Amino acid sequence: MAIVFQSHGGAEKERAVPGPSVRAGRPATGDVAVDEEADFGYFVPPLDAPENYLPNTAETLGELDELGEMMIDVVATPTSEDPTEDSTLPPVFTYWGQFLDHELTARTDREGAISSMVNAHPPVASSTVESQFRNARSPRFDLDSVYGGSAVGEGIDADVVKVISGLRHPTLTNKMRVGTAVDPGPLPDNLDEHRDLPRYGQVQSSVREAALRLAQAAMTPEAFQKFSDSLPQRAIIGDNRNDENLVVAQFHLSFLRFHNKAVDYLASHDTGWIADFSSAQALTRLHYQWLIVEGYLKGVCDPVVVDRVVNDRASHFFKFRAEFDARRQNTRLGNALPLEFSTAAYRFGHSMVRTFYDYNKNFGRPGTGFLPRATLKLLFEFTGGGGRLDDDKKLPKNWIIDWTRFTGADPHDASDGEPARLARRIDTELAPPLHTLFKEGEDQADQQLKELFKNLARRNLRRGYNLRLPTKVPPSSGLQSQAPDGPGFAQASQANWRGAVLADPRCLSIVRREARFEELPRRHCIAFPRAYADLVLHSGRSRGCRRKSIGRSRELSRGVDLRGRAACGSGLGSFAWVHAQSEPSQDARQLTDRLDHQMDAVRGGHAIVLARLLPRRTAARQTAISSGFTTLWLRKRGRNHPAILP
Questions:
Q1: Helix (H) / strand (E) containing 323
Q2: Distance in angstroms (rounded) separating the CA atoms of residues 456 and 435
Q3: Which helix (H) or strand (E) holds 34?
Q4: 449 membership: H or E segment, kind and range
Q5: pLDDT tens-digit map of 77-90
Q6: How many other C-beta atoms lie within 10 A of the C-beta of residue 63?
Q7: Domains identified in the chain, total number
Q8: What DSSP string describes 191-212?
Q9: What would the pLDDT profile of 210-247 be if each residue is shown by its tens digit?
Q10: Does 470 map to a domain?
């Protein structure tokens, strides 16, 4: 393990790959939490056979970059959002998911010897990735991103311990340190003002000095200078990515305050528990884990699926662990997490981000405060690295979140022209602001590299290619014939159950613009259990396909509202490929109704919905069907792209 100083981008100092150990090592680059040096493994075991991957060519990167540009949603105006893009989930689910990601994984977004966006080609062998790529977080819901992990090991010195001690209250040592918001106000409610993250500006000088020594040893001179200059407003929390935006920062703060309330409760009630740090930590973790299952997973997934996984004791996941241990005998460092999950399957939250939020009474309804809404850009700026904190380097009182607007306790739609108190739907498009990330790429002198680091879709696609996420499921994977149970499955006559590799959904295809369908190579599209699952139909004309265009393509593509049911965060099941056949004369409503019916049949499972809109008798279609491929037409920004899916 090691202390990690990190952000979502940038490069980390080169270091030797550690040997097998469950003990802490020296600091790397990033933030405060102990580096668990845990394992990443492949859910689909590494095969290193060319036919299981995207073509290993420089051309592939260009095609992925083009696809990344197409994945960002386009808004009609810069001041409004399309209400049909809204889900039924409260907006807290977007940032709850981000918090869980930071709790489970770290280092997947860093530039290093194994994982690189800039030098994504050629990728290293998958067996090398699995043996050398490390997860800086424990793959358990133990809140190491909050508590900092266990500082135990020969690489842990006094500076490491000193910084971690700064997470605790200096005098009430059973409690966690929190920060205090400052004027201007007003507060959004009648609660207290102790609702900022703790920051280095409020800790003892010995803690700041220790943090600087650790950072200097782990960072390049340029990165260290930037770190040193921003230290006073920098949050001292287990994982500094949780100070990336205000919503996830306030979510992190909720756990600090819950821990402190647990200490007070144990001290004032005869529970049999000792009112100390360890007891409060245990209670916080137990409540947190219960909320994940009963709140988060049953919100974004079908509750029937969640219950089945729980009752089955997550057998697929532990089967993966057992197979990984067998492959990595005598070399594994800790509990493994599937790469397909951490670098692909769990990234569905990127489609849930809003451009605008009804944040609190100061920056939201009724519109009589400072602004009628809060932009995502402002939510990034009023953080430790955002540059908008005042001379006190603390959060202003008027930017404390009103959780009733984010949790569904006080719902509101968009009928008044302001943002609905809902997350965006889980679908095939990333939110518009994710095309140009606010805090990333600023240290890149080259304009092309700056654009790459700022475009989240391109980054994720390149990362999946570079980390050798497989694009084909071998029969030995056990995913080939597993279909979810439940009523209605017998009636799904057009459902073709196939196991699908848990890989990056963004690569729905390698697109060859204006190519004839018959001339396309049989490229294996990366399939995936999340929202990219609701690509249903696409109309238009192209060479190689003669048919009548079906109008209202965007309305049709939203005709099947998966409402997050296709995205199971555990990544444990198989998937349904639902093929809706349509003759050229069939209108959008008929196809929508048919897809709705089929979704009813497969509800409770993971579904990827495709519409086959090619005429029934074309040779291309018959060839594709008989060879196990399915056709999909992508329509984006007025362009039609033929693609092949496995």
A1: helix 315-327
A2: 6
A3: strand 34-35
A4: helix 447-454
A5: 667 788 888 999 99
A6: 20
A7: 2
A8: S-S--B--BGGGS-HHHHHHHH
A9: 999 999 988 889 889 999 999 999 999 999 999 999 99
A10: no
